[in-house]
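Late entry, written up from scratch paper. The run itself happened at the end of the previous shift, but nothing got recorded in the book at the time, so transcribing now.
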Amino acid sequence: MRKHLLRKLFSALLLMITFALSGCSIGPAVQPWEKETLARPEMTFEGDPLDTKYVEHIYSSKEGASGGSGVGGGGCGCN
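Output as recorded:
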């Protein structure tokens, strides 16, 4: 009985160590030559500046509020 319990404990410990080591990465996630691709305007969250202004205009027209598009909450005062 004790041998069976030790075998299960060892298996669980080995599994936890495997999971812990599988998340490690060696070196930087983004290589220097990949930074140029990530710095392109298409890779930003805003995308096209004209489209962003249009969406903000529609939002302010619907909600009756302007600005504050970078923070949470709505135009009604609720968070």
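The mean pLDDT is 76.
(Scratch paper discarded after transcription.)
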